[in-house]
Amino acid sequence: LRAPAGGTKWDVRQKVWDHLEASGLADFPRPVHRRIPNFKGSHQTCCSIKELDVFNRAREIKVDPDKPLEGVRLAVLQARKTLLVPTPRLRTGLFNKIVPPPGATKEILRICATSQGIKEYSVPVGLDGKARVDLVVVGSVAVSEKGWRIGKGEGYADMEYAMMVSMGAVQEDTPVVTIVHDCQVLDIAEELLDDHDLTVDYILTPTRTIKTDCKRPKPQGILWHKVSYEMLEKIPILKSLRYREKQAGKDVTLQDEHSDLANANTPAASNEKAMAENTRPQTAIGSVQTGQHHVESDSFSPRLEESGMITTVYVGNIPHSVRVSELKCALREFQATPLRPNWQGAQHKAFLDYKDKATAESAVSSLKGLSLGGKTLRVELAKNQRSKG
């Protein structure tokens, strides 16, 4: 295939998608348009990753959730390596770690590698999950032998990589592999590339393994000036990363932020719509207010409580300005809704009851690094699990 002369990235995508469908190479799910396309023979192509030294040396491997990469996910699990898969559209965090049940059969591992298995056998990895990724495997719509990659146009693979750089999960020399059909390898004009575009070091196709020796630097972190408020709203973990980088003194001005935020020391700078921060004076975290505290309970199952299964999560460091509704909204956003919250805002804390220890631990992992009202919350299993019933 030849890339259309003088065309845009979208022209290149359209040409690849059209060709895969017209030539009978496209495989489920179809049509392949607007997707990372699956192709006939993708599973066998994925198996060839086992021949790469970078795969054999790696212990922790991040693989995108796309259908054509299912065979790579299976190979990682069969080799007993740690498999990290980004959460779809980064809605609830960055990674899920796929944890097959003990003594999993080949069939169970096969299921773990599918999109269904990713849902059923995964544990969220929060920002503080200390992920150390040795190999990154991404899907592509088109790629050049020089290692220049075009994705499906939503920017998630680029964003995931930039976020991994920000949290220290990848290094400059962490290799990136992509798996495509031969017809997806074509010349891509360098002027089509942006500075946030991820490049690849290895391309696996049904007929060959290409080492690109790409010299173009990979993204060095999140380019905040290219991030919109809309993206910040869609990807909750971005807010937490942005808060961290802001604390570290980095410029985190967004694409659509205006000059009123130029001076990071003014109250306006922290008045960021996307983080819904309230700039009223905050009570010092150390001062515990006495008197009765307000407890807000949601309806929950008393039977569950009496069963003694409930596990409580402690949330501390809650700014005085934050309301219970904001906490509830964040819990929903991070898919960590408890059976009930026990809100003690005057004392800067809350206790969240979950149906069992696994659900509580998952919530702790999801909420690590979450900031509300300009402060990072302290989230951990409650030290004293209160008596149930």
UniProtKB/TrEMBL annotation:
Region (Disordered): 259-279
Domain spans labelled RRM: 311-384
GO terms, molecular function: RNA binding
Pfam families: 5-FTHF_cyc-lig, RRM_1
SUPFAM superfamilies associated with the record: NagB/RpiA/CoA transferase-like, RNA-binding domain, RBD
Keyword annotations from UniProtKB, A to Z: RNA-binding
GO cellular component: cytoplasm
Official protein name in the record: Methenyltetrahydrofolate synthase domain-containing protein
Organism in which the protein naturally occurs: Caloenas nicobarica (Nicobar pigeon)
